[in-house]
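Methods: example folding runs. The two proteins below were folded one after another, and each record is reproduced exactly as written to the output file, sequence line first and structure-token line second.
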Amino acid sequence: MAELVRKPKKKRVKSEPMSRLVNEVDNLKVSSKEEVRKLKLGEKADKIYRAIVKFAKELNAEDVNRIEGLANTPINQVTPLRVSHRRAIKTRKKYLYGIKLKKFKQNIYEMLIRCEGGLYIKELISGDNGLTRPSIREISGISTKCIELDVIGVELEGF
């Protein structure tokens, strides 16, 4: 039988010492209960991602322009295969607000992607065998692989 916890202690976490322990974190702060509630309820949150993407070949200026031209585009995504065991199979329409590429190394680029929350970024990059349209793979005509992905910003409506 489970035991009751009596008089649990609430811990307060100071964000400044934590940000020194974690690489590349800016403006780390403890979220309020209201912010956490809004995120969990799925209220509108735009996200900014940093992705490191490997292309099967070097991009030329035209390829970069086509990919960055995806800005301000609705993206249709059927539930990705990698999450289909825990998500309903349906088509979601999410908005891609902006995308910028910067060459990192040969055939490897850093992408900054600003989009509506809920857009599956790895699938935006790979196309997920046609389940995400348009995709970076489809637009460029070049095989792609996301080798690193980080959320670098979350913007909640009304905050």
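Second run, written to the same file directly after the first:
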Amino acid sequence: MLTATILSFVVILLAGMPIVFALGLAATIGLVVDGTLPLTIIPQRMTGMIDTFALLAVPFFVLAGELMERGGISKRLVEMVSAFIGHFRGGLAMVCVVSSMIFAGITASSAADAAAIGAILIPAMIRQGYSAPFCASVQAASATMGPIIPPSTLAIIYAALTGVSIGSLFLAGMVPGLLMGLSLLFLARYYAIRMVEATSEPADFRTRLASLRSAVWALFVPVIILGGILSGIFTATESGAMAVVYALLVGLFVYKELKLSDLPDIFVRSTMITGMVMIVLSAAGIFAWILVTQNLPRIAADFLMAITQNAGIVMLLIIVFMLFIGMVMEIVAAGIIMIPVLAPIGMAMGFNEVHFGMVIMMTMALGAVTPPVGVTLFVAMGIAGARLSEVNRYIWPMVFVLAAVVLLVAYVPEVALFVPRLFGWL
């Protein structure tokens, strides 16, 4: 069954079938070839996959992100960052990185981050003289912080599959996400100052104060989410619901850019996004169930042990493998398939479960912007109107810098575990 399932999946995926159908059809073929299990197991496992309390946080955070984008929060974040650093040489590229660092904690998605911030900043950067390939590269690379900085949909999925605390994963992403942002900040400035000579006039104190005052409502979102979880007031799922209420109130009554007539469209969009995530989760659920029941985790662990029993080398092999998976597969589907396989290997090697989860998440996020088929990269390229052949010049150095951060986190676990331990979650 295992061989038939994996071979069918590869062939169907290479044939160009959407990932959700490739997963479901490959699982069905595997069950038919085996012949010992009834096909009724398919709907049972598909519904069982998404029948998890932790996954209730996904639609809440998706809806909150839609409300915040339509309510003007992303625009005010960009205006605030521009007021403080936009006048520096290469400042607009730095604004792109910093805005993504802040907005990552709101959208919880690298693709959403690239679309929301990129739609505002990429055209502005091009008008100021930055090349379109550079704009696409810096925005895509900055968006890798989306699945890392809390709240993170990928962290919720990882927690649902492994039983690891969502709060611990949220906290573990704070320092790695900050390091990713700082490394990109320096690299973006290095390139930007060679493209743009002119700089704008620094904003005066009154303008900066006004922009900060306007954006303070947006900056409270991570405080509410993480503060509620850390204080024990509500769970991660309940924090998503609180984020929805907060975004709705701010959009309607504070910024007043959100109208009641906008809500039906927002609900439809968030429902479609949630539906796409959930159908991939359900299809990947039956696929992953077959892999686990056919002892693929044990087979993979035995294979790695046959190569080496050095924990550091095993970690490196897993990173390289997951980077490749992230390059060719959508990040949610990749997570659902590979997390149940890799988590037991991490436990067998003695890795801390929160640290190991963070390394896997960071690697998959990096894969989403790595050529030739990184999904997030193509979102930014579409906004900028750039071609892959042009983008390679800029995106690869950024990928290497981010990979260095991944390796740092992988081999210095305290980078990820410091904050969870500080707050007593480990």
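Comment on the second run: DSSP finds 21 helices and no strands in the chain.
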